[in-house]
Design goal:
This protein is mostly beta strands. The protein has 2 domains: 91 residues, no CATH class; 81 residues, no CATH class. The protein contains 2 helices and 10 strands; from the N terminus they run βαββββββαβββ. Strand 4 and strand 5 form a beta hairpin. It starts with 9 loop residues before the first strand and ends in an 11-residue tail after the last strand.
Length: 209
């Protein structure tokens, strides 16, 4: 039986372990390394790149929560000697850690295929495999939903504050699209809500000379 390490792609980097005080000075954009020995992976002695879920100064107590680049949230206690700890890449670091490397990405896309019959989907998958290599592009999950041929306006409307009906809410159009398959994937601004209406073409009735 081959050792587990032979099927795990890692890179060795110089690093140093951070104390809780050092972690509380970091922001959500600072790249960390936390243990890969999680509920999903179970890889002791390996680390994965991660980022704090909120600025270190906002944490209360000693427990820190980070989200790995593989989208798993992990809580840990940096000062606990019995835990793997949190590391920062440092050329002058006193230790060397093994960092798990990504094999690729899973694209979570919403594709609209006009016509959308079996032949169109087969051609789409064949083109992907031709571009990236046979057996490289794998279809793990496929959800198909037919959409009506109706044009809609997708707006974001400001959520009114104070007395109801006092002011007409502000509105910005985000997109004109076929029936709102895309509205589920648009990130709307804080304090705004999505509004979907049947598209009404703008008619310019300005008199011409």
């Amino acid at each position: 039986m081959q050792p587990e390490r032979e099927i795990v792609n890692t890179e060795k980097i110089a690093a140093r372990r951070l104390s809780l005080e050092e972690v509380t000075k970091l922001g959500v954009k600072d790249r960390l390394f936390i243990s890969a020995d999680t509920a999903e992976l179970k890889l002791p002695d390996c680390y994965v790149p991660a980022f704090l879920t909120k600025s270190g100064e906002d944490f209360e107590g000693g427990s820190i929560t980070a989200r790995t680049v593989f989208q798993e949230e992990v809580s840990c206690l940096p000062d606990d000697e019995n835990e793997a700890g949190i590391y920062l890449a440092d050329e002058n670091g006193s230790v060397t850690i093994e960092v798990l490397q990504p094999a690729g990405v899973v694209l979570d896309l919403a594709l609209f295929v006009p016509g959308g019959d079996k032949g169109a989907l087969t051609a789409l998958y064949a083109a992907a495999r031709q571009a990236f290599g046979a057996d490289v592009v794998q279809i793990w999950r496929q959800g198909l939903k037919e959409v009506p041929d109706v044009k809609v306006d997708i707006f974001e409307e400001q959520i009114p504050r104070g007395r109801k009906g006092s002011d007409r809410p502000k509105r910005d159009r985000r997109a004109v699209d076929t029936y709102p398959t895309r509205a589920d994937f648009i990130e709307f601004s804080a304090g705004w809500k999505p509004v979907v209406e049947i598209h009404r073409p703008i008619v310019d009735d300005t008199p011409t000379i």
